[in-house]
Amino acid sequence: MADIGWGQLQAYEAYGRAGDKKEDFNIISYEEALSDKYSSSKHASHSMLFARNDAILWDLYNTRGTVLMQMRFDGLLGFPGGLVDPGEHPLESANREMVEEIGLDLNILKLSDSDHVVSFVNKDKNLVLHFYGKEITLSQFQEIELGNLKAPDYGSETLGVIRPPLFTMGDGYRGLPAFLSNSFAGNARQELLIGLQHFKLLSEDEIQEAVKSWLTFQIKNTQ
Ligand SMILES: O=c1[nH]cnc2c1ncn2[C@H]1C[C@H](O)[C@@H](COP(=O)(O)OP(=O)(O)O)O1
């Protein structure tokens, strides 16, 4: 295939390169992540909006909750967010990106420092990732989904919001484990699992089962 290069994306290409592994990211405290130690690092912020939802599908599966993720321009799945601009606070960046990518109205809904969930450092990339999360009502969630088509970045940087299934179906694979088999940007898969546990949308055991099933299926598929 002809190499068409990266154009204006050249400076950022390495940050978003596919193939990041969970082990590349070490958890650090918010305080440390915001300290001078990482002032010369590149920072990025991403956010998980979610609503609890105990609707039962087909009299079988408790949907548990709706979590907002998105299909990105590069075919990877991720949370709304992006690189922090020079001089910008990661929290400001998280809010700005939600306006641009999902059309959020900050007069109605805005993240604050108390919504911080976890931060990571990827030493090889000199990149610090901040992850925020906020519970909203199901009707707020549906409003955001409807408004997404009018978000400034819709159709260019972002290609639509999605709800990951949080249940696992009878074959032990379809549902959340199959969703985990997708390709994710950065450590978005890890962030999703941390978010599900942090907000008690799923228990630790349920998450471990889903991860085990996803990995087992992957191994079978490569044999
Ligand atoms: O959802 C995500 N969770 C964790 N890391 C992510 C997520 N989406 C992207 N990334 C990584 C990939 C890059 O290393 C940086 C910045 O990426 P991106 O969101 O594409 O930033 P811009 O939109 O280019 O500002 O975070």
UniProtKB/TrEMBL annotation:
Its cofactor is Co(2+). Its main location: nucleus. SUPFAM superfamilies: Nudix. It is an enzyme of class 3 (hydrolase). Residues 51-223 form the Nudix hydrolase domain. Its EC number is 3.6.1.64. This is U8 snoRNA-decapping enzyme. Belongs to the Nudix hydrolase family. NUDT16 subfamily. The lineage of its organism: Eukaryota, Metazoa, Spiralia, Lophotrochozoa, Mollusca. It holds the Pfam family Nudt16-like. The keyword Cell wall biogenesis/degradation does not apply. GO terms for cellular component: nucleolus; nucleoplasm. Keywords: Nucleotide metabolism, Nucleus, RNA-binding. The keyword Magnesium does not apply.
